[in-house]
């Protein structure tokens, strides 16, 4: 369903490879089918919520995410991003339709939570029974971190003993503050994008009927959602209280989704493949205790072969060189652990070295998600406040400053054409609101936007965006970026969604 909804404009072969990259993700398979847990259900509900958001069904998306939260508390890592996205859409729709959507989302979420917790509420249980699930959701009594997890607290604990210098209460407050600071950029980015893209900005002339249609359509800042999910979840993994090794599965979901839509020589692909491999490596102490050594090696080899990733080829970028050095460190640690037992005074030396190798990779990934969120928000016009034109006509949303895709953002066959698309999108929106070539503006409507795209409906019937996951229009057979294609947003009757249509604008 994900490949149909988010990658409906891609080739069938590309969709199949993307599906295999998701289904064969080694970290998830090893934990759920080797360590025997059910994280895939929680992640599946979240992915289903993303699909509903992409098709404009926000209420169903809210229900699915609430079910994800109810199934496993680790889904709370996504809550700041999901909540900010829905609130940003309410801002985008304006005070009338936005307030109605906000109330509906609140009612649906509260009703779903009530049904989930009904067995712990009177008359089915005493009122104190609700404390049982709450204590498990927030396990403050279990310590700052569990085992040797590759996050900030465990890695820094090598040099600074946090439990010695701070009380548990102080550590709870400190970890909460650092976690909030960590996901704050994603929250601010989404909310500000919703405000700058609002349809009821001063001077706009959006018709009431078209505004009603926009309620059941994804907003133009949907492409920020995967980066916000990654930023939020990685912030929780690195800085929150009581983190387990397997919680790295939560930030791996949006990162693997980004990988599935990227070209093989892009920055996104390189980083996503590296982090997926290092994530499996970071769980090695847990997998070793479960006797999953053979499966550990086999799944890594199979998955990297399926996605066409070979980290030991000649480095073509600084990222590839860094990845090569990290892989050499991982393999060297495995060999050292195999031939030399740990010294008696340092029985945990190998798990600690594992943490010190893995944590910097996850920290850089968190910073990268912030950087990419800013770039995508800038390119989609989310960092430019909408202002009415002198003639009082409809403001042109998506009018981002001119950005050109370069090696600093992606490689020459980059998976994201969103920077150049922001410029072309500005021109296309200008054409949409322009009635004549003389430049005289007329009232804007969804129907006219669709006429401008002049394209047949997508076969997948979904959100066929080439930039929804930060990816460009990459041909599956050759991995070539078709730079002639850019995007414009138009409302397609019958589907009830905003469709990112391709057009030969460049």
From TrEMBL:
rRNA processing among the record's keywords?
A: no
UniProt GO cellular component terms? endoplasmic reticulum membrane
Q: Does the keyword Glycosyltransferase apply?
A: yes
Q: What is its EC number?
A: 2.4.1.-
- Taxonomic superkingdom: Eukaryota
In residue numbers, the region (Disordered) covers 455-481
Q: What class of enzyme is it?
A: transferase
What are the entry keywords?
Endoplasmic reticulum, Glycosyltransferase, Membrane, Transferase, Transmembrane, Transmembrane helix
The record's annotation in PANTHER family points to: DOLICHYL GLYCOSYLTRANSFERASE, DOLICHYL PYROPHOSPHATE MAN9GLCNAC2 ALPHA-1,3-GLUCOSYLTRANSFERASE
**What protein family does this chain belong to?**
Belongs to the ALG6/ALG8 glucosyltransferase family.
Name this protein carries in UniProt: Alpha-1,3-glucosyltransferase
